[in-house]
Amino acid sequence: MLDYLTKELTKKERKETIKYMSQYNNLSAIIESKKLDVYPSNITTIKDDPSKPSNQFYSETEETALKSLEIEEYELTKMKLDLVYESVKPVQKLIWDEHFIDGRTDSDTYYGHDITKRTYYREKEELIKDVAECLEIGTNSHQKCTKNAPSGTE
Hints:
It is built from eight helices and no strands. With 154 residues, it is an all-alpha fold. The chain has one domain (11-38, 57-138). Mean pLDDT is 80; it is low at 141-154.
């Protein structure tokens, strides 16, 4: 049996996983809007701010690079969620769509589709654990990999 299915998630880990599942459809829009922020603007803006002496170093290139890294992180998360979404059972996909994305209550979802209450909650729990494992929420699997990796390759 797969270890992650027998592991219990803490309330915080469960809440974080559910947050990702609820925002699944919005991730594409977030990624695209962040990409628009990275593209250079052809509009010239004149600022009427007096110059302020500062010891801070500002680099537009560095800022763009940081935004690009953030976008890559969002894209990786979206790809992982896509993989899970496409690989779950049809009943789990239905639960994800109706309960987590559309915001329907548990009872509306299982009564509306003739799913027994026990089956519904069992499938829902398995779905949450699948997503948590995929996103490495509540697991130490990524830490194990770096501990066993030869030094210099982490």
